[in-house]
């Protein structure tokens, strides 16, 4: 995929998910800002390394990114892994709920127990008119259970 096209798709997805997070009030503004920081850094890393960002949205892929990122910014690698995982798991779930195929966070994860898009996200993400409903806490979803 041409890099300009990839950036455009990424920015469109990011804008949609930001709106969902804000409308559903499932994340506060400071959390959204931190998530965006990590999501953008991850996307830039994937583009620079010629990796498919969607395919890298796994625990192993995110850990590899964080291990690469931490020394460049002179930050603790474990802290980078934890923060990147939190943000990028939310990103992966958001992509999944909007119909983007992303891999399981961990190999062998049973994705059948995860909520369906209709259970997780306001209908507004699909372009329908309707009231926004609050989604349950991300931590209650199997994909986000403590590892």
Task: Explain the overall architecture.
This protein has 147 residues and is mostly helical. It has one domain. Helices cover 56% and strands 0% of the residues. It is built from five helices and no strands. Helix 1 runs antiparallel to helix 2, helix 2 packs across helix 4 and helix 3 packs across helix 4. It is globular, with a radius of gyration of 15 Å.
Produce a short descriptive summary.
The protein is 56% helix and 0% strand. It is an all-alpha fold. The N and C termini lie far apart (33 Å).
Give the topology, please:
Blueprint: H1 3-24, H2 29-48, H3 59-73, H4 77-97, H5 117-120
Helix pairs in contact: 1-2, 2-4, 3-4
Report mean pLDDT, rounded to a whole number.
Answer: 77
State the helicity in percent bands. Answer: 55-70%
| Outline | globular
User: Class by helix and strand content?
Assistant: mainly alpha
DSSP helical segment count:
5
Provide the succession of SSEs.
Answer: HHHHH
Number of domains: 1
Q: Number of DSSP strands?
A: 0
Low-confidence stretches: 115-136
- Main pleated-sheet profile: none
**What is the C-alpha radius of gyration, as a whole number of Å?**
15 Å
Strand content: under 5%
In angstroms, what separates the terminal alpha carbons?
Answer: 33 Å
Organism: Marinobacterium rhizophilum
Protein name: Integrase SAM-like N-terminal domain-containing protein
């Amino acid at each position: 995929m041409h890099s300009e096209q990839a950036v455009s798709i990424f920015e469109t997805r990011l804008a949609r998910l930001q709106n969902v997070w804000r409308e559903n009030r499932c994340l506060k503004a400071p959390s959204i800002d931190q998530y965006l920081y990590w999501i953008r850094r991850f996307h830039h890393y994937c583009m620079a390394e010629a990796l498919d960002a969607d395919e890298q949205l796994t625990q192993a892929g995110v850990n590899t990114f964080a291990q690469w990122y931490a020394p460049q910014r002179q930050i603790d690698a474990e802290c980078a892994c934890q923060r990147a995982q939190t943000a990028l798991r939310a990103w992966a779930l958001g992509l999944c709920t909007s119909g983007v195929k992303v891999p399981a966070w961990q190999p062998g994860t049973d994705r059948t127990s995860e909520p369906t898009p209709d259970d997780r996200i306001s209908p507004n993400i699909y372009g329908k008119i309707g009231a926004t409903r609050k989604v349950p806490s991300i931590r209650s979803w199997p994909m986000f259970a403590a590892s």
